[in-house]
Amino acid sequence: MAMARMRCSRQSNPHRILVVVVLAAVLLLPVVATAAAAVVAVAEGEGENRSAARQWATGKDEGELVAGEESGGGGGGSVVEDEFAGGFGSLDSMLQWAIGNSDPEKLKEQADGVQKLSEDDLLKRRTEIKELMEKLKMPSDADLMKIAIADLNNTSISLEDRQRALQELLLLVEPIDNANDLDKLGGLVPVIRDLTNANEEIRTTSAWVLGKASQNNALVQNQILGYGALAKLVKMGYATSTEEAVKALYAISALIRNNVNGQEAFYSENGNAMLQHILVSSSDVRLQKKAVFLVTDLADFQLNSGKSGLPFLSDSVFLKSLVDMLSRFDLDLQEKVLLAIKSVLKLSSTEATDFESCDLNSVLYRLGVQLEELPSEEQKEYAGEVDELRREVQTLFQNKLKEGTKIAL
Ligand SMILES: *[C@@H]1O[C@H](CO)[C@@H](O)[C@H](O)[C@H]1NC(C)=O
Ligand SMILES: *[C@@H]1O[C@H](CO)[C@@H](O)[C@H](O)[C@H]1NC(C)=O
Ligand SMILES: *[C@@H]1O[C@H](CO)[C@@H](O)[C@H](O)[C@H]1NC(C)=O
């Protein structure tokens, strides 16, 4: 699947098509000749395989492909490439057939007097065909990554080609083995460099690639952190383009997830100020949800690991911006904010009184009323779940307040 998409995505890159076409022109001719000989040999003896033979005989020839390539250019190239992809399929079945029917014993028997090839010739041909099939195999992921990386490393490449190379890497780094190879192949440096590209789309896709590659992968996380990419990503979190900020936040989350070094770097790069900025100033709910989700994730990591490296999670101004978000009329956002408050409340560094001073109690009460009154029929069930969570947070908050009072007494 990834391969198929890959092939489509590189469809209009002229020099790549040219490589494929030249390769095909060199390799196809002898194969076609060999296979055709076998086809004729059998077809003469067997009426039933005539149609198959005709189908191969009218298959693509390389002249057509080269002509298409020359006039193809940008958009037109896609048609050529698609046809060519189809050509691979029939070539494959042709070779399979040719090998199956090149069995010396079988052929000898079938073609009898008509067959003029010696057994040695047939064996030799069979080996040749096998070798050709090996050569015609699709390039490996590493090959494809090298091509994309070489493009990214080339400063004179067009923006369109750069974007395409990034899109290709985006798919290629999904398997963990490929992600592990990215730095070895020299890919991380040019991708990180593109985080500061003048083009917004390039910056956005670069962040996306880094997030994808570092997801659940401590090795790649540390490599990217080692190159100092976090500072650039934090800056991107302030982007006016929602898409850019969303992808930056996605990359940051993937980069520092369960990673103490990453979280410390996030703090020292003032990532918390960026988060705060999104919570307070963004008008985009999707971006806010991502920011709130990151808060929950960081708090949960502290709770589970017992490591406390992020004092901002308990900062009173930060807590206030979380609580204020409960007044936004978005059920999904409200649920995510409640989850964040729940996790942050559990941190020993968080003072319940800080939540008290931003009026968490009445905010939760008002939310309860809203959840009861507002939801439409189809949202009722969801609203019920969110309300349950709201009660849980309220209880947690009350208990923490009581504990605090006890200690104070
Ligand atoms: C005819 O060709 C098909 C492949 O298309 C092959 O599987 C089949 O064995 C051939 N029939 C005979 C009688 O050789
Ligand atoms: C860089 O890209 C340009 C434009 O596509 C191309 O002409 C040039 O050969 C490339 N350089 C390398 C080293 O691949
Ligand atoms: C990228 O280009 C630089 C200098 O142009 C070169 O030193 C480096 O080896 C290249 N990296 C890759 C992966 O091609």
Automatic annotation (TrEMBL):
InterPro entries: ARM-like, ARM-type_fold, Hsp70_NEF-Inhibitors, Nucleotide_exch_fac_Fes1. Residues 1-37 form the signal peptide. The keyword Lipoprotein does not apply. SUPFAM superfamilies: ARM repeat. One of its GO terms (molecular function) is adenyl-nucleotide exchange factor activity. The keyword Signal applies. Pfam families: Fes1. Residues 91-182 form the Nucleotide exchange factor Fes1 domain. Residues 50-76 are annotated as: Disordered. GO terms for cellular component: endoplasmic reticulum. Keywords: Signal. It comes from the Eukaryota. PANTHER family: ARM REPEAT SUPERFAMILY PROTEIN, PROTEIN FOLDING REGULATOR. This is Nucleotide exchange factor Fes1 domain-containing protein.
